[in-house]
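Proteins fold reproducibly. Next comes an illustrative record:
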Amino acid sequence: MRNVDERLVAEGGGGATAKPMLAKDRGGFIEQHDLWTEAQYAAAGQMRRVMDEVGIDMVQFLFVDQHGILRGKTLTRTAVPAALKSGVRAPSTLLLKDTSGKSVFPVFSTEALGGLSRFSGAGDVVLVPDPTTFRVLPWSDNTGLILCDLRFPDGSVVPYCTRSLLKRQLTALAEQRDLGLTVGPELEFHVFKADGGFSPDRVGAPGAPGEAPRTSATTAGSQLLHAESMDTLDDLVGELYRGLTLLDLPLRTIELEFGPSQLEITLEAGDAAKVADDVILARMAVRQIARRMGYHATFMSRPLGADTASTGWHLHQSMRNLVTGQNVFMSPDADGILSDTGRYYLGGLLAHAEAAAAFTTPTVNGYKRYQAFSLAPDRILWGIDNKGAMVRAVGGAGDDATRLENRSGEPAANPYLYILSQLVSGMDGLDRALEPGEPTENPYADDVTKLPKSLGAAVEALAADDVFRAALGDDVITWFTTIKQAEYDRYLAQVSDWEQREYFSLI
């Protein structure tokens, strides 16, 4: 099932055969506040046509929260027309929670909320569907999905909608500089065999999650790209291919990684906003397909039982001139690896790496990946085609694929915030002509600043970074750092298994 935009092109040259939105289907909250383009109205009409053709009974209206998790409601086909006019309401407190579901802000105290006073009383936000994202879910009978942006009930922008945050920055980049950001994701993850059902010990509460599912390994590890080990997961690999491609995701590869139970998928590079959507849908698909087949897939970077190899998210990035289409990172010098634009952008990535880590590695667990000699970076430097460096530069004169690969991210990161952090950092480097210094040849030996050792350290760096504050606003930085600091504080208060084993008998 192709997405709506692709069907418009495939079935009539840019929407000639699309079923238009009739006057009776317009109006409501979306038209009142001018929230859709004409292309979105056309896509909504086509979505209605596809629903009729395929026999869709339910549509999931979903938004991406601060943690990169999809949340929303499932509507019956009879409720969809109204939702396409006026959106869907959901509790605003979903934007104020940490990863355990605990609300970090006191929503019933206006004074304590400070800059988040619009969330007082746990009122609603409106999920505004983007019809161009409509998909039919291959693994769920007669069910579709649509991604949404967020607005307040008066039509004003919800500043903590991460999808909208990225789109606004990309729009400014295009309108003010005639530049577009191209990114390509490599996402590593683990797939275990699920060993049990939902037992009582897995029942938790906000701030105190239940026990993790019981699992066992699926591959032995230590055999990178081993064909026969991959063959043992042939049933899963086949279903992943089928599901991801039927979702219209630009899947390039499915690979066996080095660690036990570890796989990787790569997606085609493309426009940053679309790729962020693709990553969200790909992670959802991998988890849901695996679960239906008796596996447990996780994008947690370093789960128990996978100590020999953590998972990362390598983000390739370049910029193109929207008028000429040229890759502006490509060096004009036969001996150069990057243009001045690419070099200064790289300088910005390095200058703001500590602060950006709160977005590229937003979980407590992700910082346990930063270890020397592990093909994961542990310090802030760059190299030419060097996979131990934080940023790997690839390309050269005449190479239209010239790009920078940030290898510091974790696969659980919110893709909108990860990509946004790169754009904010890189553009500051470009504006200030920041030189990145010489490339490293010893990425684990050079005496340079190390990446943050913990989520707490990254949150402190973000809170102190004036460039991020200027780009995103004080309220956004305060909102995000407050949530992540609360999450980190809960972690510090928890007595770990390591502490129990280390001290309980000894002292």
About this structure: The chain is about 35% helix and 20% strand. Residues 4-18 have pLDDT under 50 and may be disordered. The longest helix spans residues 272-292. The longest strand covers residues 179-194.
